[in-house]
Amino acid sequence: MDHDQQSHEIFSDYREFPAPPRLASRFLCLWTQSIVGFRGTYRHWVLPDGCIDIVFINDDPPMVVGPWTEPFVVTLAAGTTIVGARFHPGRAPKMLGFPAAELRNSSVSLTDVWGAKSKRFTRIYDEPSQMERMSVLAEALLENLLFDLPIDEAVVAGIRWLAQHPHGRVEQLSNWIGISNRHLQRRFVAAVGYGPKMFQSILRFQRLLALAGGTGVYQRFAELAADAGYADQAHMTREVQRLAKCPPTVLLRSDRCTLSMSDLFKTCVPPVD
């Protein structure tokens, strides 16, 4: 979820860390970001990734950043420090007690989502460093995990199927799970924030970022498009323009996948008939 626009005066130091074992079933990673510099502002470009994040910026009240279908820019001042926790796609709503669709393309206060339970996180502000804050964040999340509800296993299985079948059709997924297209759509919207077709587009987009690795090796565009699951290079260009509002030549120069700590891109199988 990040587009690093660096200058000589200010830059972003973004790092991801594996979620503690007891949180790993819900959370993809914990992460930190520091805006390094003595003056100025940094424009942080957030790209769609199918995830929901809990974010602490400086000493501001914590926010829940929902699943987006388009990019947006956050302006951060030099010296800003951020700590966050990123849910696996589709696994946030049962823990938050809040439908993902209500968070789509928006950010809301953690207090509005968790109410009094969000007070467990106030002790984060007593910690002086990002690493200490991240440790307290993990402890508070573990406390809230005690009130967790079972995840929608059909949606989780559907997410994995879409990852393994980049050319698969939603109708095939519906038949494989054994529920109607309409029921599948409704359950995906509740758990992920949008339907399986949109999620498939975002997953393909993130796979492209994972394959490119921020290399900007433009002569490989046709190969990248095929490997990422696009019909052709023109299809890739249209999708990148839709999800990133820029051409691949700009996107792939520096942006990186924010699902790299998941296993969604480790195994792909040929398209099913």
Characteristics:
disordered N terminus, two-stranded antiparallel ribbon, Arc Repressor Mutant, subunit A, alpha+beta, 273 residues, globular, 18% strand, Jelly Rolls
Describe the protein in words.
With 273 residues, the chain is of the alpha+beta class. It starts with 9 loop residues before the first strand and ends in a 19-residue tail after the last helix. It has two domains: 136 residues, Jelly Rolls (Sandwich); 102 residues, Arc Repressor Mutant, subunit A, CATH 1.10.10.60.
Structure summary:
This protein is α+β, with helices and mostly antiparallel strands. It is built from ten helices and eight strands.
Q: Summarize the amount of helix as a percent range.
A: 25-40%
The strand count comes to 8
Overall CATH class of the largest domain? Mainly Beta
SS element count, helices: 10
Q: What is the mean pLDDT?
A: 89
- Structural class, from helix and strand content? alpha+beta
H and E string: EEEEEEEHEHHHHHHHHH
The low-pLDDT segments are: 1-7, 268-273
List the helices and strands and how they pair.
Layout: E1 10-18, E2 27-37, E3 41-46, E4 53-57, E5 63-65, E6 72-77, E7 81-87, H1 93-96, E8 107-109, H2 110-114, H3 130-145, H4 153-164, H5 170-177, H6 181-191, H7 196-212, H8 221-228, H9 233-244, H10 248-254
Antiparallel strand pairs: 1-2, 2-7, 3-6, 4-5, 4-7, 5-8
Helix pairs in contact: 4-7, 7-8
